[in-house]
């Protein structure tokens, strides 16, 4: 099974500043035939379902602000949120769908400093 | 638009059974892979089970294998999760979720894109 590990578990960032969340998979999530990373990022707020932000490691879902940037390949990935806004307070999860046995990271709680 | 509506949650005693349903609309259900994901109180997201568009393959997390069964009725646009031998640690909000890409477009695999609002399952005596 692929284990996803996020860091940090929580972070506090000032409004207008940049938040960086890391995600490491226990094995590569790249499919060699199409060179896609089967890695997604979700934003989860209390009382709401998770929201897809980024898929294929760096493709932004429709309607997601360009402040949200996904990067990385293979086993190491990053979600960068620039110009942090109050509405960005949430728990963020990375997720791999490379294996048929899906898995999520443990989550990173983002707060305003 | 894509709509996923879960039902069937409730309170059940340890060792009991429960059946969750997910009614869908706004898309061609029969060409998308579907999933169940849960979140226990105070915990993170946990993938539970997946089923291919045609029901030909089903996958389960180790924590539920042998106790839970995922199924689908493509004629009724409905996804189900049959849960047996329930334990306290199965207490969670259960989300129904849909793949980003359908089987026509998908290459190798997809990812989870759309989620229902969730239904709460509480296992307690």
Task: Give an overview in words.
Chain A has 113 residues and is mostly beta strands. Chain A is 0% helix and 51% strand. Chain B is mainly β and 125 residues long. Helix content of chain B is 0%, strand content 49%. Chain B is built from no helices and eleven strands. In chain B, the strands form two sheets. In chain B, strands 2, 4, 5, 6, 9, 10 and 11 form a seven-stranded mixed beta sheet that branches. In chain B, strands 1-3-8-7 form a four-stranded antiparallel beta sheet, with no helix packed on it. The mean pLDDT of chain B is 97.
Defining traits:
heterodimer, A: 113 residues, mainly beta, seven-stranded mixed sheet, four-stranded antiparallel sheet, 13 strands, globular, B: 125 residues
Write the layout of secondary structure elements.
The complex is a heterodimer of chains A (113) and B (125).
Chain A: E1 4-7, E2 10-13, E3 19-25, E4 30-31, E5 36-37, E6 39-44, E7 51-55, E8 59-60, E9 68-73, E10 76-81, E11 90-96, E12 103-104, E13 108-112
Parallel strand pairs in A: 2-13
Antiparallel strand pairs in A: 1-3, 3-10, 4-5, 6-7, 6-11, 7-8, 9-10, 11-12, 11-13
Chain B: E1 3-7, E2 10-12, E3 18-25, E4 34-39, E5 45-51, E6 58-60, E7 68-73, E8 78-83, E9 92-99, E10 112-115, E11 119-123
Parallel strand pairs in B: 2-11
Antiparallel strand pairs in B: 1-3, 3-8, 4-5, 4-9, 5-6, 7-8, 9-10, 9-11
Care to give the gist of this entry?
With 113 residues, chain A is mostly beta strands. Chain A has strands at 4-7, 10-13, 19-25, 30-31, 36-37, 39-44, 51-55, 59-60, 68-73, 76-81, 90-96, 103-104, 108-112. In chain B, strands 2, 4, 5, 6, 9, 10 and 11 form a seven-stranded mixed beta sheet that branches.
- Kindly report the oligomeric state of this protein: heterodimer
C-alpha-based Rg of chain B, rounded: 14 Å
The total beta strand count of chain A reads 13
Task: Give unreliable regions of chain A as ranges.
Answer: none
Average per-residue pLDDT of chain B, rounded, comes to 97
Distance between the termini of chain B: 40 Å
Strand content of chain B: over 45%
H-E string of chain B: EEEEEEEEEEE
Distance between the termini of chain A: 36 Å
Please compute the radius of gyration of chain A using only Cα atoms.
13 Å
- Shape descriptor of chain B reads globular
Question: Which runs of chain B of at least 5 residues are low in confidence (pLDDT < 50)?
Answer: none
Provide the succession of SSEs of chain A.
EEEEEEEEEEEEE
Structural class of chain A: mainly beta
| Major pleated sheet of chain A | 7 strands, mixed
């Amino acid at each position: 099974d692929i284990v996803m590990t996020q860091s940090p578990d929580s972070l506090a960032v000032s409004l207008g500043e940049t938040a960086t969340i890391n995600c490491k998979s226990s094995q590569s999530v790249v499919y060699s035939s199409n060179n896609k990373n089967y890695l997604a990022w979700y934003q989860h707020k209390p009382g709401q379902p998770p929201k897809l932000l980024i898929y294929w490691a760096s493709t932004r879902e429709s309607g997601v602000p360009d402040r949200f940037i996904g990067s990385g390949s293979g086993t190491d990935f990053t979600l960068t949120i620039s110009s942090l806004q109050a509405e960005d307070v949430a728990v963020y999860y990375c997720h791999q769908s490379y294996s048929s046995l899906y898995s999520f990271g443990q989550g990173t709680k983002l707060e305003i400093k | 638009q894509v709509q996923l509506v879960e039902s069937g949650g409730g309170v059940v005693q340890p060792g009991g059974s429960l059946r969750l349903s997910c009614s869908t609309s706004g898309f061609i259900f029969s060409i998308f892979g579907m999933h169940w994901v849960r979140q226990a109180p105070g915990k993170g997201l946990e993938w539970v089970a997946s089923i291919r568009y045609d029901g030909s393959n089903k996958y389960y997390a180790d924590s539920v294998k042998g106790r839970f069964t995922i199924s689908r009725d493509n004629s009724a646009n409905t996804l189900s999760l049959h849960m047996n031998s329930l334990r306290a640690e199965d207490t969670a909000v259960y989300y129904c979720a849909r793949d980003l890409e359908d089987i026509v477009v998908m290459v190798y695999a997809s990812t989870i894109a759309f989620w229902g609002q969730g239904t709460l399952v509480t296992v307690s005596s």
